Structures are given as structure tokens and as C-alpha cells.
Amino acid sequence: MTGTAEISRRAWLAGAAATTACSSLARQTVAATPQPVKPKSVAAVLTAYEHGLHADVLIGKILEGWKQDGGAGPALELAAMYVEQFTDRDMARSMSQKHGVPIFETIEQAVTVGGEHIPVDGVISVGEHGNYPSNNKGQTLYPRRRFFEAITDAFRKYDKVVPVFSDKHLGPVWSDAKWMYDRAIAMKVPFMAGSSMTVGYREPHIEIRPDCEVEAAVGIGYSGLDIYGSHALEFFQCHVERRQGAEVGVKWVQCLHGDAMWKVLDEGVVRQDMFDAALAQVPHESGDVRHSNESTLFLFRYTDGLMGAVFMLPDFARGTSVALKLKEKNEIQGTRFDERTEPRHPHFAWLLKGIEKMIHTDRATYPVERTLLTSGILDRALTSRATGQRKLLTPELEIQYHPVDYPHAPDPDLNSRPDQGVNSVRR
Q1: What is the pTM of this model?
Q2: Which of 158, 188, 231, 314 has the smallest count of CB within 10 Å of its CB?
């Protein structure tokens, strides 16, 4: 071989090696580049759809992005809607036309998108708002059980189960709440429910490590006992469930008002300093809170001995908070739910993020048992209130579950992959 030929061969080999290296680097770069997540399809089952209602700030974020401004949104696509009540402020029809999403006359048709099988990957049921009757306990009888029954009847008919989210507390009456839970378990439906307060912003941020010892806890709520009592109880529960031994359920529930509710502070059943710390976290009226005529106390004891106390102060407080005394800390810790309104009630974006994760993983992102328990506490408290403030033993509420370490706003990143990252519930 001549010297010229040898040089040419060396040059060719060097070039080939460089090409191979570049090709390998290119493959590594492609492999390292996150691939976009394919959106999952959902059906929406709604009581009513108006600006600012839960349907708007949940479903609207699927249609028009996390901020509802046409920007980035969840990896979800709305395939169909069922809307029970069309009000004079209805948005469902205009959003249907704008985004090409059909509205069906029955829940089964929405779940099947008008076909003979279930093509959707999940269902979001919003049984909140609209014109519905109330019972003698002050509970608005939203059709959450009826919606869930129709959704799961369609699952049985077409032999397919997909994840379901039911907005706010279950029930609202206990028998309906327990029925919904039992059906989900029996049919192995990945199931979530509850308040956006468990995943929304908090101010200040406080650290509550898993398996800590909670010596005392007091919550503050406001507005109506049924409509906002569920929020206050879930905000309280998502903090105390992290205590040592996990959640073991509630032994008894009592609802007190008037002199009887303040007596629990005077007698030390609930610590005055804990109440003061919780109240200090939220805006409130000046003066003596005991002069408030609308105040009510949800008092309940967990089966492990912890006393639960949520003071509903609708004409005095203007927020939701919790105060905790942990054995490992000398001082009382307190935080409030930061109820921001812009952009478009952002706590619902973080609620939808949890729903998105469930639909992509086929597992509940956090336990529905938390909402089952708080739904039961609320129902039993309102029952106690309607029957002369009686203390009610609640063996049905000895509900046990292990919480998961799912974050609250501003974590997780709304644009993070819904099929990776934070823990989810495995049944």
C-alpha cells in the first residue's frame, strides 16, 4: 500500500469514527429530550357551568390552559359533556361550540361519547352548584351519588372501568358517601374526591414530617356549615393525618354552638392558646369572638385519642386555617389556606394536576378515604346540630388509611409529566 493510500485510509477511518460519534451523540440527545405526553381523554358530568363555578375553573382549564388564557394546560382533552342545568349564565353551550365538544342528554352518552363502548380515559364529576333542594340538616342535596351511580353503571354495561374524580365532599349525606366509596372499591374504580384546599397555596409554609406526634390541633373555617365546613375539615385533616400511626378514624362527633361551644375552651377540653393561634392566621373582625351569634364548633375525637376541633366562624373570620402543636417543637405552628382568585382560582389548577396524574397512572393520587372521613364528620356534625347538640358515637367513621406525601402549590410544577414523580396510591 502506498503512503498516499495509507493517509487516505486513515482519513476515512477518522471521518467514519467522527460520524459514528456524532450519530451516537445525536441518539443520546434524542433519548435525553423528554417526549411530550400524549393527552388522555375525559368526559365531564356537570350540574351547571357558569363563569367562576367549579365546572368553569376545572373543565375550563382543560379547554383553555392552566390560567384559562389559551396557554399551556394539562395533558387532558375534553371529549364530551353532560350538563344537568342550563342557567341564564350558562357557558357550556358556548364552550361546546368554541372547542367542538359535544353535550349529551344522558350521563351514559357522555361517558361513551355517544357510542357503544367507553373511549375516554377518565371522568370528572362536578356535583356542585345549581338549583337543588336542601334537607332539614342544612345539606344541599347535590346529585353526587346519582352522578357516580350513572357513571359506574355505564362502566358495568360496557365492561370497562376508568378513573373518576368527584368534586368536593362525598354524599353529601353519609349513606350516599359510603355507597359511593363501597361501589368504587367493589368495582376497582380509581377514585378521588375532595377539596382544592388540600393542594392549594398555604401561608406560611409549615413542615409537618410524616409520623410526627401531634399533641393538639385546632381549625378555623367560615361561611356556610355545609358548603365550607367540608373545606375546613379537609384542610384540617390533610395536616393531622400525617401524625404517628397514620389515620385511624373518629370515635365520636358533636356539634356545639352558643355558650356550649365556648365552654370547651373554658374547661380546657380544647386549648385556648391553640384556638388563638389558629384565629391569628386569618383575617377576622375586631372585638370578642364570643359575641358572634353564628359561630359553631365541630368537635370530634379520633380513636387514637387526639381531639379534633374546627370552629366555624361565618360572621367573624374570613379564612380557613389550622394550628398544630407537635411534640417535637416547643411553639405552636399555624398556617392558612391562601385563597387566591387570580389567575382564575389557581388552587383548582393544582387540584386538576392531581386529577391529571390519576388519569395518566390509573391510580388515585392521594387517598379518597380522607374525603370519606371528612364527609362523615360533617354529616354527623350536622346531624348532631339538628338533634340538640347530641354527642354521636361513630363506629362507621373508624376509617383507617395511610396518607401519601403529595405536595401542595406551588409544587408540583404544573407542566411536569403526569406519569412520573410524586407518590400515588396503590390499591
Answers
A1: 0.91
A2: 188
d(CA 251, CA 248): 9
Q: Name which of 38, 401, 77 is nearest 247 in CA terms.
A: 401
Residue 101 lies in a domain: yes
Distance CA 227, CA 214 (A): 28
CATH of the domain at 145: 3.40.50.720
Structural domain containing residue 188 = 40-198
- Tens of pLDDT along the chain (427 residues) come to 444 344 343 443 344 444 444 444 444 444 445 578 999 999 999 999 999 999 999 999 999 999 999 999 999 999 999 999 999 999 999 999 999 999 999 999 999 999 999 999 999 999 999 999 999 999 999 999 999 999 999 999 999 999 999 999 999 999 999 999 999 999 999 999 999 999 999 999 998 999 999 999 999 999 999 999 999 999 999 999 999 999 999 999 999 999 999 999 999 999 999 999 999 999 999 999 999 889 999 999 999 999 999 999 999 999 999 999 999 999 999 999 999 999 999 999 999 999 999 999 999 999 999 999 999 999 999 999 999 999 999 999 999 999 999 999 999 999 999 998 766 564 3
- Report how many domains make up the chain: 2
Cα separation, 35 vs 68, whole angstroms: 24
Task: Give domain status of residue 312, yes or no.
Answer: yes
In a domain, 392, yes or no: no
